[in-house]
């Protein structure tokens, strides 16, 4: 039991570890999904960084071009001042040049504004680049941390899987061990039950042997002899005294051996006399009580039921259940040998209990005598009389002898017999009290059953109040309906019929050796 408790405790602990590992694996899966999201964000940031770098290069090229154009404009103005044509031409040229210069100045101012805006954008882009680089470094650090954590979690997950597999193997081993322990426990319980049965049988044998020893000791009591005191002198005076003492002890030993032989002879003589007396008693019993012949003569003169007819309205039945037994008085049975019971498990029992004559259920324990093979129920074992080894003819004889003396040799009484008018013989007249019977039923040989009609529907010609006093006998060829005058008479008739039933069951039983 301690091993089973230990296995259950380990199984519960393994279950807790397995659930904890499942929770950790779920966390790892969620963190892995977050890591994949961060990787995708990192790739998008890298692409944005490359685009910004390209824009910075393009802006720097545009800035250089604008600076070169601004530096070339004063050279053009100086060249125009050197060439002074005529006034009209000069004015026209001056106006055109002024307009061009103004346009160029406007363009230069606009380009300066654009350059300043581009420089501001460039500074912003640089700041954004630095911030993105910092974020990228942080993301890389987080990525490294997540990679390390992922590797650690993968290692832990592999360890969890290994532990789960080990737990599964241990669980299977613990289940096998628990099954083995249960089987051993079942075998131990069966051994315990068998040892208890053997102990009870040994105690019964010991008690029987002790009773037998006490009986034999009470029958054969040896003569009580006074023990001779052995002289043991403290000091030996001489060698002659020592020799005389040895001779006296030798003589005493011879006398004791002679007395022992005499007692043995007496015991053998008493045993022979006892055996002869027992044989004589058996011979006398066989001469006085011829069991087989008496049983046959008794069973030939079976009980019968005599029916007699009354008036045309109701027929009256006078029945004699004759149990004509022998005139001699049965002797007292002095058979007192207890049975030695042995418990036996049966799956399909075809025999009946030899005490209550009821069948055995399937898959049960029965008790069988070791000597006479009598089979009884567990609750019937206590009520069985000490008749081990008694012949069945002797039991039948005593049953037949005492059954007639208990209730008398015949059962008499008046009842009504319900018959159909067509079944009555032609010219039938009411029978007198001392007339011969017209129906005889052998209650010992025919298979019949008693039905007490108490809750059935009333029959034709029978009042509803009289249904409780109706007795129905169903036989293979016919059915008898007997109506008793009173409920006490019905009880007496049912008791007589039940006694005939018990007698029939006891006659039909046979000794059973196997089940």
Automatic annotation (TrEMBL):
Single GO MF descriptor: metal ion binding
Q: Which residues form the Phorbol-ester/DAG-type domain?
A: 338-388
Which top-rank group of organisms is this from?
Eukaryota
Q: Any idea which UniProt keywords this protein has?
A: Coiled coil, Metal-binding, Zinc
Coiled-coil spans are: 4-69, 115-142, 171-212, 246-280
* Record bears the keyword Coiled coil: yes
Stored Gene3D superfamilies: 3.30.60.20
SMART domains in the cross-refs: C1
Q: Does the keyword Thylakoid apply?
A: no
What name does this protein carry?
Phorbol-ester/DAG-type domain-containing protein
Q: Which organism is it from?
A: Meloidogyne enterolobii (Root-knot nematode worm)
């Amino acid at each position: 039991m301690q091993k089973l408790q230990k296995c259950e405790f380990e199984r519960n602990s393994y279950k807790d570890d397995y659930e904890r590992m499942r929770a950790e694996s779920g966390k790892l899966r969620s963190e892995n999904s977050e890591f994949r999201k961060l990787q995708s964000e990192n790739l998008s940031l890298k692409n944005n960084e490359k685009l910004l770098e390209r824009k910075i290069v393009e802006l720097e090229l545009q800035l250089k071009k604008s600076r070169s154009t601004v530096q070339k404009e004063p050279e053009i103005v100086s060249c125009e001042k050197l060439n002074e044509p005529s006034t009209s031409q000069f004015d026209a040229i001056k106006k055109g040049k002024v307009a061009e210069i103004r346009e160029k100045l406007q363009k230069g101012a606009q380009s300066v504004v654009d350059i300043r805006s581009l420089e501001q954008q460039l500074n912003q882009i640089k700041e954004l680049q630095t911030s993105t680089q910092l974020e990228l470094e942080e993301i890389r650090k987080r990525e490294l941390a997540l990679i390390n954590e992922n590797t650690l979690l993968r290692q832990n997950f592999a360890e969890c899987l290994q532990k789960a597999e080990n737990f599964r193997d241990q669980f299977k081993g613990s289940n096998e061990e628990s099954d083995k322990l249960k089987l051993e426990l079942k075998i131990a319980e069966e051994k315990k039950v068998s040892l208890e049965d053997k102990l009870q049988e040994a105690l019964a044998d010991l008690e029987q042997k002790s009773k037998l020893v006490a009986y034999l000791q009470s029958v054969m009591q040896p003569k009580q002899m006074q023990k001779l005191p052995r002289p043991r002198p403290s000091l030996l005076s001489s060698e002659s005294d020592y020799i005389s003492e040895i001779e006296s002890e030798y003589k005493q030993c011879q006398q004791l051996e002679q007395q022992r032989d005499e007692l043995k002879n007496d015991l053998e003589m008493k045993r022979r006399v006892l055996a002869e007396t027992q044989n004589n008693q058996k011979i006398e019993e066989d001469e006085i009580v011829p069991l087989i012949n008496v049983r046959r003569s008794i069973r030939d003169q079976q009980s019968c039921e005599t029916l007699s007819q009354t008036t045309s309205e109701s027929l009256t039945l006078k029945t004699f259940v004759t149990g004509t037994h022998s005139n001699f008085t049965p002797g007292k049975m002095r058979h007192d040998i207890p049975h030695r019971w042995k418990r036996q498990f049966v799956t399909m029992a075809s025999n009946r209990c030899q005490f209550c004559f009821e069948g055995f259920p399937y898959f049960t324990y029965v008790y069988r005598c070791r000597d006479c093979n009598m089979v009884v129920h567990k609750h019937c074992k206590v009520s069985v009389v000490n008749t081990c080894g008694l012949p069945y003819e002797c039991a039948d004889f005593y049953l037949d002898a005492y059954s007639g003396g208990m209730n008398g040799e015949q059962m008499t009484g008046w009842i009504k017999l319900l018959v159909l008018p067509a079944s009555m013989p032609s010219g039938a007249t009411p029978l007198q009290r001392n007339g011969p019977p017209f129906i005889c039923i052998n209650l010992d040989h025919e298979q019949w059953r008693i039905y007490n009609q108490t809750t059935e529907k009333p029959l034709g010609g029978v009042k509803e109040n009289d249904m409780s006093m109706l007795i129905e006998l169903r036989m293979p060829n016919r059915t008898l309906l007997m109506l008793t005058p009173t409920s006490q008479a019905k009880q007496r008739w049912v008791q007589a019929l039940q006694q005939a039933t018990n007698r029939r069951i006891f006659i039909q039983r046979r000794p059973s050796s196997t089940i």
